Amino acid sequence: LPAPQPQVLPEHESVSYSVSSTVGVSLTPGDARSQLTCQIEHSTLPAPLRGTYNLCDALRVPPRLRVGTDPPVPIVVNGSVTFPCCAEGFYPKDVSLTWLENGNETGLGKASPRLRIQ
């Protein structure tokens, strides 16, 4: 990742120093399973120190929603029809699905979670 050169402070005023760096990341839905790691090496360390941030802790992806009919329209009067509602592509997985008719909760329908791990 491109990042500006870290700044070590203070340069001549102390026997101990601090270093900081920032990096900007444009997150995509696929980053939900990614980690970002900051690593520092120093002559006093036997191995590099690493700090890791799970991008899923910051990433939120809104659902896409599709509502249709089965069978496809047109449907004859007194015919039976099913209305599937499908929410896809969201993160995290917690979601609530409710059917409303004319703005009032129907109490009908059931949610069947389909989990797809990519």
TrEMBL record:
Alphabetized Pfam families for the sequence: C1-set
Keyword vocabulary terms for this entry: Disulfide bond, Glycoprotein
Keyword flag Magnesium: no
Domain Ig-like stretches: 63-118
Descriptive protein name: Signal regulatory protein beta 1
Organism: Chelydra serpentina (Snapping turtle)
